[in-house]
Specification:
single chain, alpha/beta, Rossmann fold, seven-stranded mixed β-sheet, 7 strands, protein transport, transport, nucleotide-binding
Length: 190
């Protein structure tokens, strides 16, 4: 990416938490309801005009399967920011947030803004109430934000907006809608 406001955002989390569906539903041209587990990583290039500038973001959907740490470190290196996805139906995905955060910092030792984000809503009446205080380290970690979008899907844009504001160092930046992505902007890698 050659643009002044071009960024790499890694999206990580356990297998099956909804990383790919979050990206494809909100940043890709068409959503495919068929679940295919990501092998390796998949990059979706997303361009958006903001109220203050234009940004280009490569969203790196990194496989949550047990790939080798050394492989993931290569994929995560050079990230400008990250989203750690968790699934309300998978309590272990919350427990693994700390591991994912450590891996991100191992690959990016100078630090980066991180969002911990719930995504997959449970069936009506079975939604768990998620309190970010349950992730005690959040309050002790700089540059980490929590969004429960599984409970309020209208907030799907908040994690990426938070990240863009941090990367631009502009808390007033807002989106110009709609999001735009073409089929040519999606790359797959094993």
């Amino acid at each position: 990416m050659n643009s002044e406001n071009a960024f790499k955002v890694a999206i990580v989390g356990d297998a099956g938490v909804g990383k790919s569906s979050y990206i494809k539903k909100h940043f890709a041209p068409e959503f495919d309801w068929q679940y295919l587990q990501t092998e390796g990583y998949e990059v979706t290039r997303w361009s958006q005009t903001m109220t203050t500038c234009h940004v280009e973001i490569d969203l790196w959907d990194v496989s949550g399967s047990r790939s080798k740490l050394s492989e993931r470190q290569k994929w995560l290196a050079g990230s400008d920011a990250a989203i750690i996805m968790v699934d309300l139906a998978q309590p272990t995905s919350f427990e693994n947030v700390i591991r994912w955060h450590e891996e991100l910092l191992l690959a990016n030792p100078s630090g980066l803004p991180v969002v911990v984000c719930t995504w997959k809503p449970l069936q009506k009446g079975k939604l768990l109430n998620v309190d970010p205080e349950t992730l005690l380290w959040l309050g002790e970690t700089e540059n980490v934000q929590f969004y429960d979008i599984a409970a309020d899907i209208s907030r799907f844009d908040q994690p990426i907006l938070y990240i863009i504001r941090k990367l631009l160092n502009d808390p007033s930046a807002e989106f110009w809608f709609p999001y735009t992505v073409s089929d040519e902007d999606i790359e797959m890698h094993d």
